[in-house]
Amino acid sequence: MSYYLPTVEPQKADGQVKSVYGTLTTMFQTVPKVFVAQSIRPDLLELIVNYVNKLMIETHSLPRRTKELVAAYVSRINSCAY
Q1: CB neighbour burial string for 34-47, b if at least 16 within 10 angstroms, e if fewer
Q2: Measured between alpha carbons, how far is residue 51 from residues 2, 16, 58, 77 in Å?
Q3: Which of 10, 16, 19, 58 is close enough to 31 for a disulfide, judged by CB 3.0 to 4.6 Å?
């Protein structure tokens, strides 16, 4: 059984999705596919991107580099390729 969800690719984005993709491009120099998969709900995508920005990008008690290393290590432990 296969399913198809109509996602919005970055080059075809407009409105709220284009704005959120712009934020992602600033954060990661690209739009990661995990966020493209969530483009069917732009209202939720914007909230998730704002959360990721506050959690991973903004510097608080840990610098971004350290947070990304922790995330990569946890992904490896969980055998997650992403």
Answers
A1: ebbebbeebeebbe
A2: 31, 16, 10, 24
A3: 10
